[in-house]
Protein backbone atom coordinates (compact mmCIF):
# COMPACT_ATOMS: atom_id res chain seq x y z
CA UNK A 1 0.00 0.00 0.00
CA UNK A 2 1.41 3.41 -0.98
CA UNK A 3 1.19 6.56 1.12
CA UNK A 4 -1.59 7.86 -1.14
CA UNK A 5 -3.78 4.81 -0.59
CA UNK A 6 -6.23 4.51 2.29
CA UNK A 7 -7.78 1.47 3.89
CA UNK A 8 -11.26 0.77 2.53
CA UNK A 9 -13.97 0.48 5.19
CA UNK A 10 -16.61 -2.22 4.96
CA UNK A 11 -19.22 0.39 4.11
CA UNK A 12 -17.07 1.75 1.30
CA UNK A 13 -16.49 -1.76 -0.03
CA UNK A 14 -20.21 -2.51 0.01
CA UNK A 15 -21.02 0.69 -1.87
CA UNK A 16 -18.27 0.06 -4.42
CA UNK A 17 -19.56 -3.47 -5.09
CA UNK A 18 -23.16 -2.27 -5.28
CA UNK A 19 -22.11 0.31 -7.85
CA UNK A 20 -20.73 -2.56 -9.92
CA UNK A 21 -24.15 -4.23 -9.85
CA UNK A 22 -22.97 -7.33 -8.00
CA UNK A 23 -24.95 -9.46 -5.53
CA UNK A 24 -23.48 -7.96 -2.37
CA UNK A 25 -24.92 -7.96 1.15
CA UNK A 26 -24.49 -5.46 4.00
CA UNK A 27 -21.44 -7.33 5.26
CA UNK A 28 -19.53 -7.18 1.99
CA UNK A 29 -20.07 -10.79 0.92
CA UNK A 30 -20.58 -11.24 -2.81
CA UNK A 31 -22.67 -14.10 -4.22
CA UNK A 32 -20.99 -15.61 -7.28
CA UNK A 33 -22.29 -19.18 -6.84
CA UNK A 34 -25.91 -19.79 -7.87
CA UNK A 35 -27.68 -22.99 -6.78
CA UNK A 36 -30.64 -23.67 -9.10
CA UNK A 37 -33.25 -26.19 -7.96
CA UNK A 38 -34.84 -27.71 -11.04
CA UNK A 39 -37.53 -29.80 -9.36
CA UNK A 40 -38.68 -30.66 -5.85
CA UNK A 41 -39.50 -34.31 -6.59
CA UNK A 42 -37.12 -37.11 -5.67
CA UNK A 43 -37.10 -40.85 -6.41
CA UNK A 44 -35.52 -41.78 -3.06
CA UNK A 45 -37.00 -41.36 0.41
CA UNK A 46 -33.92 -40.83 2.55
CA UNK A 47 -34.86 -40.98 6.20
CA UNK A 48 -33.02 -37.74 7.07
CA UNK A 49 -34.68 -35.83 4.22
CA UNK A 50 -38.34 -36.79 3.88
CA UNK A 51 -41.00 -39.19 5.18
CA UNK A 52 -41.64 -42.53 3.50
CA UNK A 53 -44.78 -41.28 1.76
CA UNK A 54 -42.93 -38.33 0.26
CA UNK A 55 -44.03 -34.71 0.41
CA UNK A 56 -46.67 -32.60 -1.35
CA UNK A 57 -44.99 -31.78 -4.68
CA UNK A 58 -45.26 -28.42 -6.38
CA UNK A 59 -47.91 -28.27 -9.11
CA UNK A 60 -46.43 -28.08 -12.61
CA UNK A 61 -47.69 -24.55 -13.29
CA UNK A 62 -45.78 -23.27 -10.26
CA UNK A 63 -42.46 -24.63 -11.51
CA UNK A 64 -40.26 -22.41 -13.61
CA UNK A 65 -40.20 -23.44 -17.27
CA UNK A 66 -36.92 -24.36 -18.96
CA UNK A 67 -36.87 -20.98 -20.72
CA UNK A 68 -37.49 -19.15 -17.43
CA UNK A 69 -34.63 -21.00 -15.74
CA UNK A 70 -32.26 -20.17 -18.58
CA UNK A 71 -33.33 -16.52 -18.57
CA UNK A 72 -32.72 -16.12 -14.84
CA UNK A 73 -29.38 -17.91 -15.16
CA UNK A 74 -28.44 -15.50 -17.96
CA UNK A 75 -29.37 -12.50 -15.82
CA UNK A 76 -27.30 -13.89 -12.96
CA UNK A 77 -24.25 -14.39 -15.19
CA UNK A 78 -24.47 -11.31 -17.41
CA UNK A 79 -25.74 -8.72 -14.94
CA UNK A 80 -24.94 -9.96 -11.43
CA UNK A 81 -21.45 -11.43 -11.66
CA UNK A 82 -22.37 -15.07 -11.00
CA UNK A 83 -19.68 -17.38 -12.39
CA UNK A 84 -20.74 -20.79 -11.05
CA UNK A 85 -24.05 -22.59 -11.58
CA UNK A 86 -24.96 -25.72 -9.64
CA UNK A 87 -28.13 -27.62 -10.52
CA UNK A 88 -29.93 -29.38 -7.68
CA UNK A 89 -33.35 -30.74 -6.73
CA UNK A 90 -35.15 -32.61 -5.34
CA UNK A 91 -33.47 -34.86 -7.84
CA UNK A 92 -32.41 -32.85 -10.92
CA UNK A 93 -32.18 -35.92 -13.18
CA UNK A 94 -36.00 -36.04 -12.99
CA UNK A 95 -36.20 -32.74 -14.89
CA UNK A 96 -37.10 -33.65 -18.51
CA UNK A 97 -35.32 -30.63 -19.98
CA UNK A 98 -32.09 -31.00 -18.01
CA UNK A 99 -29.72 -31.64 -20.92
CA UNK A 100 -31.15 -28.72 -22.90
CA UNK A 101 -30.84 -26.40 -19.90
CA UNK A 102 -27.19 -27.38 -19.43
CA UNK A 103 -26.53 -26.89 -23.14
CA UNK A 104 -28.00 -23.37 -23.09
CA UNK A 105 -26.34 -22.08 -19.94
CA UNK A 106 -22.92 -23.26 -21.06
CA UNK A 107 -23.34 -20.98 -24.10
CA UNK A 108 -23.59 -17.94 -21.81
CA UNK A 109 -20.74 -15.46 -21.82
CA UNK A 110 -18.73 -15.23 -19.74
CA UNK A 111 -19.14 -19.01 -19.55
CA UNK A 112 -20.02 -20.11 -16.01
CA UNK A 113 -18.66 -23.30 -14.51
CA UNK A 114 -21.42 -25.88 -14.14
CA UNK A 115 -22.05 -28.67 -11.67
CA UNK A 116 -24.85 -31.04 -10.72
CA UNK A 117 -25.76 -32.55 -7.36
CA UNK A 118 -27.62 -35.85 -7.76
CA UNK A 119 -28.53 -39.06 -5.98
CA UNK A 120 -27.08 -40.90 -8.97
CA UNK A 121 -30.18 -42.87 -9.98
CA UNK A 122 -30.35 -42.73 -13.76
CA UNK A 123 -26.95 -41.08 -14.04
CA UNK A 124 -25.61 -44.12 -15.88
CA UNK A 125 -28.01 -43.43 -18.77
CA UNK A 126 -27.47 -39.67 -19.05
CA UNK A 127 -23.90 -38.94 -17.91
CA UNK A 128 -22.46 -38.90 -21.43
CA UNK A 129 -25.22 -36.59 -22.70
CA UNK A 130 -24.65 -34.21 -19.79
CA UNK A 131 -20.93 -34.09 -20.53
CA UNK A 132 -21.62 -33.47 -24.23
CA UNK A 133 -23.95 -30.60 -23.25
CA UNK A 134 -21.09 -28.96 -21.33
CA UNK A 135 -21.63 -30.00 -17.73
CA UNK A 136 -18.29 -29.78 -15.93
CA UNK A 137 -18.70 -32.05 -12.90
CA UNK A 138 -21.07 -33.87 -10.56
CA UNK A 139 -21.52 -34.50 -6.86
CA UNK A 140 -23.24 -37.78 -6.03
CA UNK A 141 -24.86 -38.52 -2.67
CA UNK A 142 -23.78 -41.88 -1.23
CA UNK A 143 -24.16 -42.62 2.48
CA UNK A 144 -23.26 -46.30 2.58
CA UNK A 145 -21.66 -49.07 0.57
CA UNK A 146 -23.84 -51.73 2.17
CA UNK A 147 -26.89 -52.75 0.15
CA UNK A 148 -29.13 -53.46 3.14
CA UNK A 149 -28.20 -50.19 4.83
CA UNK A 150 -28.79 -48.31 1.60
CA UNK A 151 -32.24 -49.80 1.34
CA UNK A 152 -33.02 -48.93 4.96
CA UNK A 153 -31.72 -45.37 4.57
CA UNK A 154 -33.34 -44.55 1.23
CA UNK A 155 -36.32 -46.95 1.36
CA UNK A 156 -35.27 -48.13 -2.09
CA UNK A 157 -33.10 -51.09 -3.19
CA UNK A 158 -31.08 -49.06 -5.72
CA UNK A 159 -27.46 -49.05 -4.54
CA UNK A 160 -26.33 -50.80 -7.72
CA UNK A 161 -27.85 -48.02 -9.85
CA UNK A 162 -26.02 -45.33 -7.87
CA UNK A 163 -22.69 -47.14 -8.21
CA UNK A 164 -23.28 -47.62 -11.94
CA UNK A 165 -24.09 -43.92 -12.25
CA UNK A 166 -20.93 -42.87 -10.46
CA UNK A 167 -18.85 -45.07 -12.74
CA UNK A 168 -20.56 -43.66 -15.84
CA UNK A 169 -19.98 -40.07 -14.69
CA UNK A 170 -16.28 -40.74 -14.19
CA UNK A 171 -16.04 -42.39 -17.61
CA UNK A 172 -17.76 -39.36 -19.19
CA UNK A 173 -15.12 -37.05 -17.75
CA UNK A 174 -17.34 -35.28 -15.24
CA UNK A 175 -14.41 -34.49 -12.96
CA UNK A 176 -13.56 -33.95 -10.22
CA UNK A 177 -16.23 -36.41 -9.18
CA UNK A 178 -17.25 -35.75 -5.58
CA UNK A 179 -19.13 -38.04 -3.24
CA UNK A 180 -21.35 -36.47 -0.57
CA UNK A 181 -21.93 -38.49 2.61
CA UNK A 182 -24.07 -37.84 5.68
CA UNK A 183 -23.21 -39.96 8.72
CA UNK A 184 -25.95 -40.80 11.21
CA UNK A 185 -25.53 -42.08 14.71
CA UNK A 186 -26.32 -45.75 15.06
CA UNK A 187 -26.87 -46.09 11.32
CA UNK A 188 -23.71 -45.67 9.24
CA UNK A 189 -21.26 -43.80 11.46
CA UNK A 190 -18.85 -46.74 11.37
CA UNK A 191 -18.40 -46.53 7.60
CA UNK A 192 -16.31 -43.35 7.36
CA UNK A 193 -12.92 -45.07 6.85
CA UNK A 194 -14.35 -47.61 4.40
CA UNK A 195 -16.03 -44.90 2.34
CA UNK A 196 -12.83 -42.88 2.18
CA UNK A 197 -10.79 -45.91 1.15
CA UNK A 198 -13.34 -46.74 -1.55
CA UNK A 199 -13.13 -43.19 -2.94
CA UNK A 200 -9.34 -43.07 -2.79
CA UNK A 201 -9.09 -46.32 -4.75
CA UNK A 202 -11.22 -44.82 -7.56
CA UNK A 203 -9.94 -41.25 -7.62
CA UNK A 204 -13.13 -39.69 -6.22
CA UNK A 205 -13.19 -36.81 -3.73
CA UNK A 206 -15.18 -37.57 -0.58
CA UNK A 207 -17.07 -34.90 1.36
CA UNK A 208 -18.71 -35.65 4.68
CA UNK A 209 -21.61 -33.33 5.53
CA UNK A 210 -23.01 -32.74 9.01
CA UNK A 211 -26.71 -33.52 9.10
CA UNK A 212 -28.59 -30.22 9.00
CA UNK A 213 -31.95 -29.10 10.44
CA UNK A 214 -33.70 -28.99 7.11
CA UNK A 215 -35.53 -32.33 6.89
CA UNK A 216 -39.10 -32.71 5.74
CA UNK A 217 -40.24 -34.38 8.94
CA UNK A 218 -38.59 -31.79 11.22
CA UNK A 219 -37.07 -34.57 13.33
CA UNK A 220 -33.47 -33.29 13.33
CA UNK A 221 -31.84 -33.62 16.74
CA UNK A 222 -28.52 -31.89 17.38
CA UNK A 223 -27.56 -34.44 20.00
CA UNK A 224 -27.93 -37.28 17.49
CA UNK A 225 -25.90 -35.51 14.82
CA UNK A 226 -22.40 -36.82 14.00
CA UNK A 227 -20.18 -33.74 14.30
CA UNK A 228 -17.21 -32.76 12.15
CA UNK A 229 -14.90 -33.52 15.07
CA UNK A 230 -16.31 -37.04 15.40
CA UNK A 231 -15.94 -37.60 11.65
CA UNK A 232 -12.29 -36.58 11.76
CA UNK A 233 -11.61 -38.80 14.76
CA UNK A 234 -13.07 -41.76 12.93
CA UNK A 235 -10.97 -41.09 9.82
CA UNK A 236 -7.81 -40.63 11.85
CA UNK A 237 -8.22 -44.16 13.19
CA UNK A 238 -7.26 -45.41 9.73
CA UNK A 239 -5.52 -42.53 7.92
CA UNK A 240 -2.96 -39.82 8.55
CA UNK A 241 -4.70 -36.48 8.03
CA UNK A 242 -2.96 -33.11 7.77
CA UNK A 243 -4.50 -29.67 7.11
CA UNK A 244 -4.70 -28.76 3.44
CA UNK A 245 -2.36 -25.80 2.86
CA UNK A 246 -4.42 -24.61 -0.12
CA UNK A 247 -6.54 -21.52 0.49
CA UNK A 248 -10.10 -22.54 1.30
CA UNK A 249 -11.77 -19.36 0.07
CA UNK A 250 -15.55 -19.63 0.05
CA UNK A 251 -15.60 -23.41 -0.30
CA UNK A 252 -18.00 -25.02 2.20
CA UNK A 253 -15.67 -27.96 2.88
CA UNK A 254 -12.61 -27.87 5.09
CA UNK A 255 -10.13 -30.25 3.47
CA UNK A 256 -7.33 -32.44 4.75
CA UNK A 257 -4.53 -34.21 2.90
CA UNK A 258 -4.77 -37.98 3.26
CA UNK A 259 -1.51 -39.78 4.07
CA UNK A 260 0.47 -36.75 2.94
CA UNK A 261 -1.53 -36.11 -0.23
CA UNK A 262 -2.23 -35.41 -2.97
CA UNK A 263 -5.57 -37.09 -2.18
CA UNK A 264 -7.91 -35.08 0.02
CA UNK A 265 -11.01 -35.53 2.12
CA UNK A 266 -13.43 -32.78 3.04
CA UNK A 267 -15.80 -32.12 5.92
CA UNK A 268 -18.66 -29.65 5.64
CA UNK A 269 -19.42 -28.69 9.23
CA UNK A 270 -22.39 -26.45 8.55
CA UNK A 271 -23.65 -26.77 12.13
CA UNK A 272 -20.58 -26.98 14.38
CA UNK A 273 -18.02 -25.21 12.14
CA UNK A 274 -20.11 -22.67 10.20
CA UNK A 275 -18.56 -20.76 7.31
CA UNK A 276 -21.21 -18.05 6.98
CA UNK A 277 -18.64 -15.24 7.00
CA UNK A 278 -17.28 -16.40 3.63
CA UNK A 279 -20.54 -17.52 2.03
CA UNK A 280 -20.78 -16.73 -1.69
CA UNK A 281 -24.06 -18.51 -2.51
CA UNK A 282 -27.50 -17.49 -3.65
CA UNK A 283 -30.35 -19.90 -4.36
CA UNK A 284 -33.18 -20.10 -6.84
CA UNK A 285 -35.95 -22.55 -5.98
CA UNK A 286 -37.81 -24.61 -8.56
CA UNK A 287 -40.82 -22.29 -8.21
CA UNK A 288 -38.81 -19.12 -8.77
CA UNK A 289 -38.07 -17.88 -5.26
CA UNK A 290 -34.74 -16.31 -4.34
CA UNK A 291 -33.23 -17.43 -1.03
CA UNK A 292 -30.11 -15.67 0.24
CA UNK A 293 -29.37 -18.45 2.74
CA UNK A 294 -30.15 -22.15 2.93
CA UNK A 295 -31.72 -21.49 6.36
CA UNK A 296 -33.56 -18.30 5.40
CA UNK A 297 -37.14 -17.93 6.62
CA UNK A 298 -37.98 -15.38 3.92
CA UNK A 299 -37.95 -15.56 0.13
CA UNK A 300 -38.19 -13.09 -2.74
CA UNK A 301 -40.52 -13.98 -5.60
CA UNK A 302 -39.00 -13.65 -9.06
CA UNK A 303 -41.53 -15.90 -10.77
CA UNK A 304 -44.43 -13.47 -10.38
CA UNK A 305 -42.33 -10.56 -11.62
CA UNK A 306 -40.96 -12.60 -14.52
CA UNK A 307 -44.41 -13.73 -15.61
CA UNK A 308 -45.75 -10.22 -15.06
CA UNK A 309 -43.50 -8.81 -17.75
CA UNK A 310 -40.56 -7.52 -15.71
CA UNK A 311 -37.46 -6.58 -17.69
CA UNK A 312 -34.06 -8.16 -17.14
CA UNK A 313 -32.93 -5.03 -15.29
CA UNK A 314 -35.98 -5.10 -13.03
CA UNK A 315 -35.42 -8.76 -12.20
CA UNK A 316 -31.74 -8.09 -11.49
CA UNK A 317 -32.67 -5.23 -9.14
CA UNK A 318 -35.10 -7.47 -7.24
CA UNK A 319 -32.35 -10.06 -6.90
CA UNK A 320 -29.87 -7.49 -5.60
CA UNK A 321 -32.39 -6.28 -3.02
CA UNK A 322 -32.99 -9.84 -1.85
CA UNK A 323 -29.27 -10.45 -1.40
CA UNK A 324 -28.65 -7.17 0.41
CA UNK A 325 -30.88 -8.27 3.30
CA UNK A 326 -28.87 -11.43 4.02
CA UNK A 327 -28.23 -12.07 7.71
CA UNK A 328 -24.70 -12.44 9.10
CA UNK A 329 -25.17 -16.16 9.85
CA UNK A 330 -27.67 -19.01 9.94
CA UNK A 331 -28.11 -18.80 13.72
CA UNK A 332 -28.48 -22.52 14.39
CA UNK A 333 -26.87 -22.04 17.80
CA UNK A 334 -29.28 -19.24 18.70
CA UNK A 335 -32.16 -20.31 21.01
CA UNK A 336 -34.54 -18.44 18.71
CA UNK A 337 -33.50 -20.44 15.61
CA UNK A 338 -36.44 -21.66 13.55
CA UNK A 339 -36.08 -24.43 11.02
CA UNK A 340 -37.12 -23.25 7.54
CA UNK A 341 -40.64 -24.25 6.56
CA UNK A 342 -39.37 -25.70 3.29
CA UNK A 343 -37.40 -28.95 3.47
CA UNK A 344 -34.11 -29.40 1.61
CA UNK A 345 -35.88 -31.12 -1.32
CA UNK A 346 -37.90 -27.95 -1.98
CA UNK A 347 -34.97 -25.55 -1.52
CA UNK A 348 -32.11 -27.20 -3.35
CA UNK A 349 -28.68 -28.01 -1.91
How would you describe this structure to a colleague?
Helices cover 31% and strands 15% of the residues. By secondary structure, it is α/β, with parallel strands linked by helices. It has one domain: Alpha-Beta Barrel (TIM Barrel). A twelve-stranded mixed β-sheet has the order 7-8-9-6-5-4-3-2-1-10-11-12. Helix 3 runs parallel beside helix 4 and helix 4 packs parallel to helix 6. The chain is globular. The model has no long low-confidence stretch (mean pLDDT 90).
SSE run: HEHEHEHEHHEHEHEEEEEEHHH
Tally of helical segments: 11
Range of strand content: 5-15%
Number of domains: 1
What is the average per-residue confidence, as pLDDT, rounded to a whole number? 90
Q: What's the CATH architecture name?
A: Alpha-Beta Barrel
CATH topology: TIM Barrel
List keywords for this structure.
349 residues, alpha/beta, TIM Barrel, 12 strands, globular
Task: Detail the topology: elements first, then pairings.
Layout lengths: L9 H10 L13 E5 L28 H15 L3 E5 L9 H8 L7 E6 L4 H11 L3 E5 L5 H8 L4 H13 L6 E4 L10 H11 L2 E5 L18 H9 L4 E3 L10 E5 L5 E5 L12 E4 L4 E3 L8 E2 L1 H5 L4 H13 L19 H4 L2
Parallel strand pairs: 1-2, 1-10, 2-3, 3-4, 4-5, 5-6, 6-9
Antiparallel strand pairs: 7-8, 8-9, 10-11, 11-12
Helix pairs in contact: 2-3, 2-10, 3-4, 4-6
Amino acid sequence: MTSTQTTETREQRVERLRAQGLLVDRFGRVATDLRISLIDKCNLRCTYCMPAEGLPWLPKDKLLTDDEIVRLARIAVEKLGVDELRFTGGEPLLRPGLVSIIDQVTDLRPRPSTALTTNGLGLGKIAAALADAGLDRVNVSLDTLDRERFQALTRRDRLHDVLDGIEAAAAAGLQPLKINTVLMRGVNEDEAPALLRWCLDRGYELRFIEQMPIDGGHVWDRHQMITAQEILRSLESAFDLSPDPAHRGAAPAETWLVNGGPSKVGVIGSVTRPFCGDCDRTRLTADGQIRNCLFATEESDLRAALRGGASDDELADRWRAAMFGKRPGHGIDDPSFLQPARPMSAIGG
